[in-house]
Amino acid sequence: MRGLCLRSLNSVILRLAIVAMGLMFGSAYALSLEPELASLEPSAETGSDLLNKMTHSHRELNYRAIVSYQVGDQLSSYRITHTVRDGKEFESLESLDGSHQDLVYHGHDVNCVHPGPQLIRLFGGDEEQGFYRYYDLEVKGAARVAGREAINLMIRPRDVYRLGYKLSLDKETGLLLRSDIVNQQGKVLERFQYVMLNLNISADEPVVEDAKEVQHRDNKVGDAALLVSQRTWRPNWIPAGFTLAQSENNDEAGMTYTDGLAVMSVFVEPLIKAADGSPAIIEGGMRRGASVSYTVAFAEQGSFATVVGEVPMLTAKQVAKSLSWAAQ
Amino acid sequence: MSDIVRESLSALMDGEASELELRRILSADQKAVRSEWAELHRGQDLLKGNDQRFVGWDISSRVMAEIENDQYAANSTSWKQVFSGLAIAASVATVVVVGSMGSSIFGGAAPKVADNNGLSGRVYPAQASPAVGGVAVNAQAQGSPAGLLLNDDAEARKRFEAYLRKHTDRAAFNNGQGMVSYARVVSQESK
Fold first, then answer.
1. Which of A95, A184, A267 minimises the CB distance to B163?
2. Of A136, A240, B130, B134, which cross-links A156 as Cys (Cβ 3.0–4.6 Å)?
3. Most distant CA pair in chain A: distance in Å?
4. Is B122 found in the same domain as B165?
5. Is residue B54 in a domain?
6. Tell me: the pLDDT tens digits for B10-37?
């Protein structure tokens, strides 16, 4: 965490330097080429511009919103509050129906960059690089969500190992106002939709009382790689484009991979035995909304593995089945 | 089936097989070759977004089975041979025509995936098609790659919820959605 944020500080200084240089050259350019510049009107944003903006806005703005979450015929709603104070994020999620379930999260350095957004920002929309090799992006005109002007963005996977996304992004801020996750057959698996958005809240907005605090997981890439070398198991197959986002070696042994939008985690636990000594774990999958899990028992290793994530079942199954253990 | 034969089949499908590779395919186990061939086509159709409904229908083995049953015709007069040949062709054609009509009548949206899969030129789809009695007929296999779905198993559901929470702790910072991702966990727990 400390290392990560030091690095972010460096990157901030670097960015400032680049901006300063850009201003110098930019003004010289503007003076000499004024007529040409006039024709370079701010054109419509590309899909990658929008996506890039989305990864920043939800962490950098102060807002309060009501958001609905729909899976099948079930609808639930939440109030989400996000503020930034002294470069740190404070965020809460309150459930508005059913039993009270409130979550808060505070103190996340706003400059901490996680591997997922990094994949989206890294190649700036270069069609053949990184994230953009695995998805087709298409800007699909205007929409109106939560009383705000929005832009639709279709994101289609180029292979069978990912899901598709229909996003509506706030025209002004880039905030994600609506997200449909669709499977390969085009069926909507789950939907998040803002129904109210207030961008005029003060940064001192109080956080929710008595809420459960969410842990900050340090997703630094270098650390993850270090821990992998100490681990005895690993998946032998993950779909191309997925990067190791996180890895722990404590009691919650798990590895998390992301391609920028989809995230999946692999967990390994000691095999549970039934009374007669046979493994009590049945191989199979679970599904809810866009989330699936697939569990495979590895009797020889006395372990079972579960892959969880917002990916097609096929992907979870193949990753779970590809696990292998290093000889000890 | 060995990886070498599989590689050769893939090459054949791409129109790049050498004579050596052709010989290798011909001398391999024919049943395995047929099912792998069907698999490769299924994978390609999936990537091209073609209709998936009938990819599991192995007409070749049915035709061969019919011809096997009709061996007696070989010794009879030629018009009988012609007639039985026509009958076989017609019966298979009927199945295909009726089948594809069904596909457009019930008009399920075909999975649409771009041609460029960004992985490799040669595709090895994941699922083995269950061959029943030498005839690979399983048009439904594509729909449920999951195998057993444990949604009704209380223990499995409990584990799923716990894993989903741990996963969301990691996913929320990486999926571009942030804290909203926790709705997936909370909506489930408050049920």
1. A267
2. A136
3. 84
4. no
5. yes
6. 778 766 677 777 888 888 888 888 888 8
